[in-house]
Design brief:
By secondary structure, the chain is of the alpha+beta class. The chain has one domain (5-93): Orthogonal Bundle (Arc Repressor Mutant, subunit A), CATH 1.10.10. It has 3 helices and 6 strands. It has helices at residues 47-65, 74-90, 94-97; strands spanning 5-8, 11-18, 21-23, 26-28, 30-33, 38-42. Strand 3 and strand 4 form a beta hairpin. Helix 1 packs across helix 2 (74-90). The two termini are 14 Å apart.
Length: 101
């Protein structure tokens, strides 16, 4: 089931799903609107890409809410999103051990 909200520190981000998205007149898989606390996700792609995109945008939100200076670094968000998905996929018991349900 696709999440509808994600809590980051004391902020709650709403997740909106759209057939397609554009950012600066270019196609985009996801967009994080920091001011409105909205993460928009394009649904017109493979489910794995959508999951990775949600993590990517979540990393941007975490960067902002925790005052980390990489909020606008797309490469960092891409790498962390891919790394988290791969790490949890390769280590099935890790989420349970960390208390992530």
């Amino acid at each position: 089931m696709r999440p509808k909200t994600i809590k980051v520190l004391n902020a709650v981000y709403t997740i909106d799903y759209h057939d397609t998205l554009e950012l600066n007149d270019e196609p985009a898989y996801g967009i994080c609107d920091y001011d409105k606390k909205i993460i928009s996700i394009a649904t017109g792609c493979h489910e794995l890409i959508m999951r990775e995109t949600i993590l990517h945008e979540l990393i941007h939100a975490i960067d902002l809410e925790y005052h980390i200076d990489t909020a606008d670094d797309e490469h960092v968000a891409d790498c962390y999103a891919a790394a988290f998905i791969k790490t949890f996929a390769d280590n099935k018991g890790l989420a349970d051990y960390l208390g992530i349900k």
